Amino acid sequence: MDKTSTRNFEYEITPPQGFVRINFPEIWRYRELLYVFAWRDIKVRYKQTLVGIAWAVFQPLMTMIIFSVFFGRLAKVPSDGTPYPIFVYSGLLLWNYFSTALTSASNCLVENESIVKKVYFPRLILPVATAVTPTIDFFFALLVFFGLAIFYKFPPSALGLVMLPVLLLVSLVAASGLGLALAALNAKYRDVRYILPFFIQILLFVTPVIYPVGLIPERWRFLMFFNPMAGVISFARNTLLGTGAPDWRGLMISAGASLLFLFVGLMYFRRTERFLADVL
Fold first, then answer.
1. Total number of domains constituting the chain
2. Nearest of 189, 210, 181 to residue 63 by alpha carbon
3. Is residue 11 part of a domain?
4. Alpha-carbon distance 20 to 271, whole Å?
């Protein structure tokens, strides 16, 4: 009688080392799921609200009024020769998108804990879908900006309108990159969701939303543009309102910083992706 020998094999699962590949073909196969998540977030966001999509207009409009009273009228913050309400609204337009997208992406894994634990799909889809969703708010808020431009007689330039999708894309890249890293951290350390609002509040004041870039000394200004939203908001304001020449250098620095954040966020998220179901 032949005896069959058996061998015992031991396997060790370790985190990926070195450069982590992104499985783009797999993400493409699940592209419809990205649409499902994005559409679900839109419906949940406005389903049980009293005024629905009007919140997308109400929030930046009320913020503009409050900032105009305290910073424009009382603190006398300069506005590059433009009425302060439209000056600050042009900054809030892209800032509100960025802050909403960053917050949503950072909390997406915790809020979808049950799905992440039970069903397999590329986890990368969740933060990307939640970062894309606030573009709906952006387009409704943009309609208000056009109304303010007509009221204050500051028609947007053709360059500003052409570059607006590019500026929105840079904002999306920045929010996605930071959101990916914070989503992975938030899954392991729940303190992140409590620290994040404070971090965004601080970031608001180091971004030229309520004040012009000209207040920063020229020799230090390039450092500010490593904040991705600084170059985006400055360029949008200069081209949409005509407050100065387009700062291509600042925009390129901010776009480069956005890509760097996206790369770092992707690498960190991919390194921790296989452990997410265990730590949630």
1. 1
2. 210
3. no
4. 7
